[in-house]
Task: inverse folding
């Protein structure tokens, strides 16, 4: 489980996060949603330690991550997998080398074992046989899947996903969402997804935290989201005509 | 400026932390050595031959007097090549070729979140990205400078043969006469320091890039300009201290 307590983050004069507290349970798809500039990605980066919170604390299974130094964080970081918005694959490495990279650095496995694990992860994301391709030879959806394969190669306890659907067509978006959801259940991972894609919210949102102007505005599940009378959340969720039309059926 | 210098020193300290796995870092050092050394051999060879040739012709022209022995042109061309042209001009060219590549490579990794990906995995990103480049710079620039010295002197000999200003045998006699080993030691110290400056300054500029493609280009330009200025400054300091 991950818990954030009273997280504040300020960049110069700009206060991006204002006292956010939330708990993200294991084996569930935890979604952080909100409009552009609401602080979703900043919160995610504070959780994983890419930004240091100005105030507040982050706990990974009751261990205070915020108080740890670089060396103390390494054991937790090896349990973290992350899929970035633009996949962040290493350009100079093949698909296989990307997936094997954390294994090379943090395990004592033989080359054959590492290769087996890389092949397993690539097969799990339906990219069997693409081992020798470079990231520049892959489509956006394939890059995301390689990113997921790399993220799960170390069998993480925590999976963080930043905008998994950006730049993808609706069908590929749904496939990526389903893959994240399957992996979360299969390996009992604590998954935190930052998104503003309503298909993801309705499809995999077991637990949703809605941010507005840097504050936690609402918290619940995708089943509760249609019934809420929270004005800002309704404006966000039912902004599109498609969602307005679907509102009665939810 | 003091803030930036402090950041630069802290980044260097982070770069030389104990590696997570030595074998992975060693492979990276080897890869960088090939990139810096073999990758720069062509351009260094070309400029060295031409600079050596041009220097010899100019020295021969300036010292064309019945009172000065012809072989002196060889001695002067040799010492200028060893002390100044090979280490400094080669390093300025390397700052353009290798430095811009280091800054833009690391800068691109920064803006495409590849450095964030390394950090999330628990990898010491400065150690993995910067230390191998600095080690490669400090080991390969001296080798390139030695190559440059050899080719520069050869270029002078070719120029003698083609121009006829001095005979090649006079030139060789000049190159062999009155050699002082200190000049080579000075050249090697310069090469090691310049290799360090190119790799570390350009890596620093790349590592702290923020924004997008435009900023990556700006970082590469800054890296090259700052490392060129620092090379010239260090050249003066080393020359003053050692000669």
Result:
């Amino acid at each position: 489980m991950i818990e954030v307590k009273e997280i504040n983050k300020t960049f110069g004069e700009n206060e991006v996060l204002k006292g956010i507290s939330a708990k993200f349970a294991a084996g569930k798809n935890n979604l952080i949603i909100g409009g552009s500039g609401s602080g979703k990605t900043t919160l995610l980066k504070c959780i994983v330690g890419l930004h240091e919170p100005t105030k507040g604390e982050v706990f990974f299974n009751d261990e205070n991550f915020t108080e740890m130094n670089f060396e103390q964080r390494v054991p937790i970081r090896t349990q973290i997998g992350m899929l970035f918005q633009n996949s962040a694959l290493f350009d100079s490495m093949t698909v296989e080398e990307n997936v094997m990279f954390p294994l090379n650095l943090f395990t004592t496995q033989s080359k054959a074992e590492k290769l087996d694990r890389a092949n397993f992860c690539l097969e799990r994301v339906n990219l069997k046989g693409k081992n020798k391709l470079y990231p520049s030879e892959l489509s956006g959806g394939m890059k995301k899947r390689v990113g997921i394969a790399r993220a799960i190669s170390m069998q993480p306890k925590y999976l963080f996903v930043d905008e998994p659907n950006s730049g993808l067509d609706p069908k590929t978006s749904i496939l990526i969402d389903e893959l994240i959801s399957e992996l979360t259940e299969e390996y009992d991972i604590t998954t935190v997804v930052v998104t503003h894609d309503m298909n993801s919210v309705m499809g995999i949102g077991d637990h949703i935290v809605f941010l507005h102007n840097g504050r936690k505005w609402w918290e619940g599940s995708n089943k509760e989201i249609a019934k809420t009378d929270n004005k800002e959340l309704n404006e966000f969720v039912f902004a599109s005509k498609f969602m307005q039309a679907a509102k009665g059926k939810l | 400026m003091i803030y930036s210098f402090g950041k630069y020193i802290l980044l260097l300290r982070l770069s030389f932390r104990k590696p997570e796995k030595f074998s992975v870092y060693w492979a990276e050092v080897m890869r960088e050595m090939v990139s810096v050394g073999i990758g720069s051999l062509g351009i260094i060879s070309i400029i060295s031959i031409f600079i050596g040739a041009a220097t010899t012709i100019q020295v021969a022209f300036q010292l064309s007097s019945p009172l000065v022995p012809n072989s002196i042109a060889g001695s002067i061309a040799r010492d200028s090549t060893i002390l100044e042209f090979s280490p400094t001009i080669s390093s300025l060219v390397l700052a353009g070729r290798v430095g811009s590549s280091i800054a833009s490579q690391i800068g691109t990794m920064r803006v495409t979140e590849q450095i964030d990906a390394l950090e999330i995995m628990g990898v010491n990103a400065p150690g993995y990205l910067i230390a191998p480049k600095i080690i490669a710079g400090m080991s390969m620039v001296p080798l390139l400078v030695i190559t440059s010295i050899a080719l520069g002197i050869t270029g002078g000999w070719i120029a003698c043969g083609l121009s006829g200003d001095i005979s090649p045998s006079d030139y060789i006699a000049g190159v062999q006469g009155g050699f002082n080993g200190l000049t080579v030691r000075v050249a090697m110290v310069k090469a090691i320091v310049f290799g360090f400056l190119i790799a570390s300054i350009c890596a620093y500029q790349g590592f702290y890039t923020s924004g997008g493609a435009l900023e990556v280009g700006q970082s590469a330009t800054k890296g090259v300009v700052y490392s060129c200025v620092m090379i010239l400054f260090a050249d003066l300091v080393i020359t003053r201290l050692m000669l």
